[in-house]
Amino acid sequence: MLGSWGQQQRSRGLAEDTIKDRESTVRRFVDFAGSYPWRWQASDLDEYTSLLRSKGLAVSTIRHMHGVLSVFCDYLIDPAYDWVEICDSCFGDTPSQICLPWNTTRHVQDYEGNPARRALTFEELQRFFNHADSKVEAAVAQGRKGALAASRDAQMFKTAYAFGLRRAELRGLDLADLHFNAKAPPWGRYAVLHVRWGKASKGSTPKRRTVLLVPELAWWIEGMRQWVEQGRALFPAGELAMMWPTERGSRVSLEYIDRRFTALRRELGLDPALKLHCLRHFYVTHLIEYGYADRFVQEQVGHQHASTTSIYTSVSGDFKNRILADALRRFTTPEGS
Which CATH architecture has domain 122-324? Predict the structure, then answer.
């Protein structure tokens, strides 16, 4: 069944990672239920969901599991395939849909993540970048190894913020992804970033987008130019001109990026809820505060829907006070004055 279902998903163009993840989800449910799909009942799903809730799994994770099992059951009972007839003939029982409207988790709001997740404050961001830079200075001053890697990491995190990148987008950058912008000649090849490893959806290949550097974040150019023209060249060439190589000539891993961010955050004593993705949240917040149009912000970060961008926005109190002050000024100023 799983093999045939996998073939059906490949014919739809779904990625291998997606297919493997779905197969693992089904196998875990088989192990819990202790029976094959043609003997599953809705009560099995109820018990499994209760177990996952008791373990503290996120609502979004449980909803994903429900979605996978629902799609699998739909495949089994689809008349275009013969699984109902085969099971009835061989086992005297048939598969059915166990994921029903009254026993599955629904998507009832845009954001279902951890409420503790938030954007960094300006002070936290500055402290984080200063601390990352200090690692380079300390390694150089002590004459020990690690200065080059520390320089790479510091610029890598600054790039994640300056362009609002996800982890995979950041990791997948190559030197060739740096581009010119005719509207900003002084910035040279550092005016535009071509993102080729954007988040895929519905089995698509990674989405691509072009992200423009905004003037408020042009401070990023100096450090990036120094990294590209001086630091990057000291690493092994490797097979590709990757932006963030390791000493072995490979790309930094997603796990390494997470570990380094976590290590720097812990050393500073910052909120444990702050993750690398919070830099992306802060980027969206800043663009809104700088006055950029919602549609521009949406295009910059590669969101398909404006509602997704809105949940990233966490404008500061100062910004809200400025908006309120402008509104009060318009309300209290006499007409014609």
Answer: Orthogonal Bundle (1.10)
* Nearest CA-CA partner of 276 in 287, 266, 265, 284: 265
The pTM (predicted TM-score) of the whole model is 0.74
Domain ranges of the chain: 2-91, 122-324
Give the tokens for residue 51: 């177990």
Q: How many CA atoms lie within 13 A of 170 on its CB side?
A: 27
pLDDT for res 69: 95
Over residues 17-73, the pLDDT tens digits come to 889 999 999 999 999 999 999 999 999 999 999 999 999 888 888 999 999 999 999
Distances (CA, A) of 257 to 93, 150, 217: 50, 12, 22
Question: In 183-329, where do the E strands start and end?
Answer: 192-198, 207-212
Strand ranges in the chain using DSSP code E only, listed in sequence order: 178-179, 192-198, 207-212
> What stretches of 169-304 adopt beta strand conformation (E)?
178-179, 192-198, 207-212
Q: Which three-class secondary structure string do you get for 147-176?
A: HHHHHHHHHHHHHHHHHCCCHHHHHCCEHH
Residue 22: Cβ within 10 Å count: 22
Average pLDDT in the 135-149 region? Answer: 85
Topology annotation, domain 2-91: DNA polymerase; domain 1 (1.10.150)
* Confidence label for 317 from pLDDT (cuts 50, 70 and 90): low
Asked if residue 181 lies in contact with residue 221, where contact means CB atoms within 8 angstroms, the answer is: no
Q: Give residues with Cβ within 8 angstroms of 133, minimum separation 6.
A: 154
Q: Where are the beta strands (DSSP E) in 110-267?
A: 178-179, 192-198, 207-212
